[in-house]
Amino acid sequence: MNSYKYARKQGTAIEDCVQHNESPMEQSYLEQYLCWGRDTLVPWLNKVLGSCSDITGNQIEYHIYQVFCNLRINKLFEIIVDFPNSEPALTELKVCVFETDRYKFLKASLNRIISRRLLHLGAQTSDIVSIFVSSIKCLNFLDPTADLLSSISMLIRNYLRTRPDSMRSVINILTGDAKDSDDMDLENSTISNTFSDILLRNGFKGKVLRDQQLPADITTTLVKIFDSPDVFIKEFQTLLGDRLISRSDYETDRELKNLELLKKHFSEAKLHQCEVMIKDLMDSKRINTNICNNMDPESRFVNMKVLSRLFWPQFTFEPQNHPPCVSRFLEKYDALYSKLKSMRSLRHLTNYGTVDLDLEFEDRTLSLTVTPAQASIIGFFDGKDTLSLSQLVNLSGKSAQSVEKLVSFWKSKGVLKQNMNATISVVERIDDEGALVEQEMTDVRGHEEVEQNVEAIPETVKMFRPFVQAMLGNLGSLPVDRIYTSLKAFGFTESQDKLRAYLDSLIEEDLLEAAGGNVYSLLKK
Amino acid sequence: MQLMMANIPGVSAFPEEGNLLSWIATIHGPVGTVYDGFTYKLSMKFPLNYPFTAPTIRFETPMYHPNVDTAGNICLDILKEKWSAIYNVQTVLLSLQSLLGEPNNDSPLNGQAADMWSKPKEFREMVRQTWKEI
Q1: Higher model confidence: residue A378 or residue A296?
Q2: For residue A3, is pLDDT > 70?
Q3: Does A474 contact B24 at a Cβ distance shorter than 8 Å?
């Protein structure tokens, strides 16, 4: 009895020692304590207790294993998060679990920890996925039979299925840092001799089964989250398409590497479309160089990507007229392409891609990267100073609403301005005109500005009218940013500028008054 | 949320900055009563287990009323023992508004006001004297 008590005391002491250490996970202590137990503790106990001692070295050893096991299981989540830095701790845990036969306890605690600390609303999907990956690695190391893993991956999988963005996160993890799937092999890691002896001696079931059942591979486990690989491949294809189109060069090395990695896990036929997509890009590079070489040098300013329609995800085709300089060029490009590849024609998807613009004014130049639609609007002003909105609508073939949006983009850049008679003109000189634009934008009660904004205020903002009324009625006068933060907490999605414009329009309606600067209050009646 | 969007004339309420459990409410005196034309501010403090416990409501604007004491505390059965979880901010404020017009003179907190209730002219004068913008 007594000796047991001593052992208990020692156990507590060991626990304290390990816990007080600053980074207990990156070092291994077990061996040290085992030696101490064998060489110091047992002889001392024997001396103190004399003949009535029935304590043996094995008992002390077992106890040390037990204490360590509890310690490490308590920290299991941190161990998983810190992996591979926490590898020593993991090795110790592995040894302790098999020495004390606490496999079931480990499994139960693992499930509990995962569902309590990982699978809750506060965790971001990408974090869950990356911790899942890290726990796959840990558990493959702990238990090569994948029994532990299958129990928690069930939990995580069911949870991830309830999250809409899990597919994207998984693909990002898989493609984002592809080296993850390479360093799977932990078998050669540095397990000290003593421990590997123990592991061998115990011959735990993992060793036996090693050859029959390979440790779970990360990609397969992640893909298994989703019911069928087809869904996954489709999503991958969409993402791949987005990435390929949004690049301004023809670089495909990275995508190709990702694709090859996926090919290890899926049949080639399923990934055929993705392969065509990448090949399209490579072909485009050649075709584009070829065509550009056949053109006169001053019109070599467009690079195209030729995509095979059938193999790419669905595109939205937005009809749009181009400024004369651009459409002239596009026709030439078309002609050269048909010459190069007979019987084929191009259909321009001008709502994708980007345009690098250099705008030259009388007194300044601007360099911008914009969308093609934005560029073509400014292109219509080439050679003309003033256009009306309806003229722009006719020229571009877009709806009045979208034209207005594009014009306001350029207005915010200080390139276009709206005149009194509702025409739009280019701001050639910033010093006289620019000041006016700025003033218009900052002067919250500028008549024109307000009038314009009343038309542009969307219903989603107007919905908040009673809300604003209640807020100002009860809290007195408030600055715009306070109103904005409060509204945001209740689902207001528009920008602060939209809100300001709306509040200004409420002043016009005699509902509010501006109490100096940015502060608004209810108009007292 | 419902109240903020509903825009009921005469009553409104809004959370104070950064604290959803503490609201400021406004009640306009009902037309045709001695409180007609006056606006009263109230503070509403919600306990953590709201709606299972009644919020604590006080008049912040000085109030001359048989069931309101000089510190603004209110004696209304539905805020005390008759509270039910189905009440919300909107219904409570409406009950308070109707309390202004129909006080319970049998259990007054302000005895003087209860006595004076029968003389509307004098009462109105007292209300006017008590009311102070905050």
Answers
A1: A378
A2: no
A3: yes
Among A421, A428, A386, CA closest to A407: A386
pLDDT tens string A56-67? 667 777 877 887
Crossing angle of helices A229-246 and A253-263, in 10° steps, is 170
Residue A212: pLDDT band with limits 50, 70, 90: very low
Measure in Å the smallest separation between the Cα of B118 and chain A Cα atoms: 31
Strands B19-28 and B39-45: antiparallel
Of B75, B89, B113, B116, which residue is the catalytic one?
A: B75
Domain extent, residue B126, equals 11-130
Looking at residue A456, its pLDDT comes to 59
Rounded Cα distance between A32 and A28, Å, is: 8
Q: Measured in whole angstroms, how far is the alpha carbon of residue A324 from the centre of its chain?
A: 40
Give residue B80's identity as a one-letter amino acid code.
K
Bridge partners, residue A418, by sequence: A424
Which residue in chain B is spatially nearest to A491 when comparing CA positions?
B1
Select from B5, B6, B25 the Cβ nearest to the Cβ of A474.
Answer: B25
In this predicted model, what pLDDT tens digit does every residue of A157-206 receive, in sequence order? Answer: 788 877 777 777 777 777 665 444 444 333 434 444 445 555 554 444 44
Number of domains in chain B: 1
Nearest CA in chain B to A464: B5
Name the pTM for this structure: 0.47
Asked if A511 is an interface residue toward chain B (Cβ–Cβ < 8 A), one would say: no
CB B95 within 8 A of CB B102: no
Position B2 in a domain: no
Nearest-Cα residue of chain B relative to residue A525: B37
Told to judge if B87 belongs to the known catalytic residues of this protein, a careful annotator would answer: no
- Chain A, window 432-471: residues with a beta carbon less than 8 angstroms from a chain B beta carbon: 463, 466-467, 469-471
Q: What's the complex ipTM? A: 0.72
The answer to whether domain A355-446 has CATH 1.10.10.10 is: yes
Is any Cβ of chain B less than 8 angstroms from the Cβ of A160? no
Of the candidates A462, A461, A420, the one whose C-alpha atom is nearest the C-alpha of residue A440 is A420
Contact A474 B1 (CB under 8 A): no
Nearest to A475 among B1, B4, B24 (CB): B24
CB-based contact A68:A96 (threshold 8 Å): yes
The full set of domain ranges for chain A reads 3-223, 230-336, 355-446, 457-522
A457-522 adopts what CATH topology?
Answer: Arc Repressor Mutant, subunit A (1.10.10)
